[in-house]
Amino acid sequence: MEQKSILVTGGAGYIGSHTVLQLLLGGYRAVIVDNLDNSSQIAVERVQKLAGEYGPNLSFHQIDLRDKPALEQLFVTTKFEAVIHFAGLKAVGESVQKPLMYYDNNLIGTIVLLEVMAAHGCKKLVFSSSATVYGWPKEVPCTEEFPLSATNPYGRTKLFIEEICRDIYQSDSEWKIILLRYFNPVGAHPSGDIGEDPRGIPNNLMPFVQQVAVGRRPALTVFGTDYSTADGTGVRDYIHVVDLADGHISALNKLSDPSVGCEVYNLGTGKGTSVLEMVAAFEKASGKKIPLVLAGRRPGDAEVVYASTDKAAHELTWKAKYGIDEMCRDQWNWASKNPYGYESPDSTA
Ligand code: NAD
Ligand code: UDP
């Protein structure tokens, strides 16, 4: 059987690199398009190595999605079965400071991609949306039918792209689109060779904890200790990045189902964990003490967010396998093997 080629935008990044590995191991060819704005080509090389005999089925192109002629050229030379679209900027705080940069990169990048896909008859898409589109949910677990809202420009790019996808499906029912709303991806591949390596000061909890553990930062600031949760700290649905990557393979399989139009699925575990519970699990996995500074709430943060997993379980036959102990074990394995991510210490500020 001929191997199917999948275009993976943002495939050098955190979630993309783990997904590309699962694609290769699943017998697909993967073509990465990434401008390396927030990633390193070393991640791509490591994925290739981890894939063993399947490594040669990976190719990488350093292209910005907004470069339409370069993207066109790729579609001329390769027939893609589907596209998994991760590429985008994702720092909430930065999006508030630089909204136009976020709208330009995330929206224009997506529109160019969709135009080129349509022009070449490739109408199957899996898109990285986010639980951020649930805003501050009135109740939990969040089901896919909940009302949508956004509290910052990053979140609005996810909302707008979801709406664009619904519109293009309305206009042309040949499109098959799956919008995946990720909850909180953490952890790393169990090899410890690929993982999350954010540029600058991490926004998210676990990359920050990891940098405290390896001595790059003195303490974790806990944002909010007065929420109406068991220990007063915010609760989220943390999901192992390898589980998340597998969810994309299930979504790809689902795209072959003739009944699929434009569908949305949560990818989470359905379990809520507080900041202090997560820190305790990481301390146990790493044997490191994480000093804490207790602080006020971070503006825009919701209190409790976790997923309803029923729809993905029934329709994608996908369910997360790993719990927070495995997430923290693998996060620490990656961090201790690569305390400065893909860079050497002297090349980082
Ligand atoms: P990441 O920054 O590690 O990966 C994104 C990749 O896209 C990077 O490699 C970056 O260089 C590339 N990129 C950005 N703009 C580009 C452009 N114009 N052209 C080409 N490449 C470009 O982020 P991630 O955590 O792997 O997230 C992947 C996707 O999932 C993003 O769309 C993000 O918004 C979404 N998401 C992430 C989380 C999370 O917590 N990590 C949660 C929900 C949704
Ligand atoms: N958080 C924290 N300190 C940090 C980063 C995050 O206390 O340095 C908290 C945050 O308030 C939230 C949880 O950890 O309750 C998860 O935050 P993250 O930014 O990782 O995910 P999101 O809020 O986008 O779901």
Automatic annotation (TrEMBL):
Gene3D superfamilies documented for this protein? NAD(P)-binding Rossmann-like Domain, UDP-galactose 4-epimerase, domain 1
Enzyme Commission (EC) number = 5.1.3.-
Query: Pathway membership of this protein?
Result: Carbohydrate metabolism; galactose metabolism
Tell me which UniProt keywords the record has, alphabetically: Carbohydrate metabolism, Galactose metabolism, Isomerase, NAD
Give residue ranges for domain NAD(P)-binding: 7-330
- An individual GO BP term: galactose metabolic process
Name what cofactor the protein needs.
Answer: NAD(+)
The record lists the catalysed reaction(s) as: UDP-alpha-D-glucose = UDP-alpha-D-galactose
Q: Which Pfam families did the record assign?
A: GDP_Man_Dehyd (PF16363)
Any one GO MF term held by the record is: UDP-glucose 4-epimerase activity
Q: What sort of enzyme, by top EC class, is this? A: isomerase
Example of a GO cellular component annotation carried by this entry:
cytosol
Top-level lineage group: Eukaryota
Q: Which family does it belong to?
A: Belongs to the NAD(P)-dependent epimerase/dehydratase family.
Write the protein's name: UDP-glucose 4-epimerase
